Amino acid sequence: MVVGIIKFSIHIPETRSLKAKRQVVRRLLQKANGRFKNIAISEVGSHDLWQKAEIGVSAVGVDHQVINSLLDQVLDYFEEFEDIEIIHADMEIFSL
């Protein structure tokens, strides 16, 4: 079994409140879930900061290359999402 994870730290420059931040994060998570059916995605940190969020993405499979390719596609998708800026992305893939 191969497990891959990415933890994103993102900046949301246009938000001026937690409510606006949550709307952007919710839209990002819903669109990513709709586009990539084989991932789990959630906001995992910086819940009380209105211009920053931490997003966790995970994928499980049997082939290292498939998981790596899937997570690269997720990373590319986040980079193209117009309402956010990626501050840091940390990807790890390991076999169990």
The tally of structural domains comes to: 1
Largest sheet: 4 strands, antiparallel
CATH topology: Alpha-Beta Plaits
From the spread of the alpha carbons, the general shape counts as elongated
Q: How much β-strand is present in the residues?
A: 35-45%
Structural classification: alpha+beta
Q: How many distinct helices?
A: 2
- Show unreliable segments: none
Q: What separation lies between the terminal Cα atoms?
A: 5 Å
Provide a descriptive summary of the structure in words.
With 96 residues, the chain is α+β, with helices and mostly antiparallel strands. Helices cover 36% and strands 39% of the residues. The chain has helices spanning 18-35, 64-80, and strands at residues 2-11, 40-45, 52-61, 85-95. It starts with a strand and ends with a strand. The model has no long low-confidence stretch (mean pLDDT 90).
Topology of helices and strands:
Blueprint: E1 2-11, H1 18-35, E2 40-45, E3 52-61, H2 64-80, E4 85-95
Antiparallel strand pairs: 1-3, 1-4, 2-3
Descriptive tags:
39% strand; 96 residues; alpha+beta; Alpha-Beta Plaits; single chain
Nutshell version of this structure?
By secondary structure, the protein is α+β, with helices and mostly antiparallel strands. It has a single domain, classed as Alpha-Beta Plaits (2-Layer Sandwich), CATH 3.30.70.
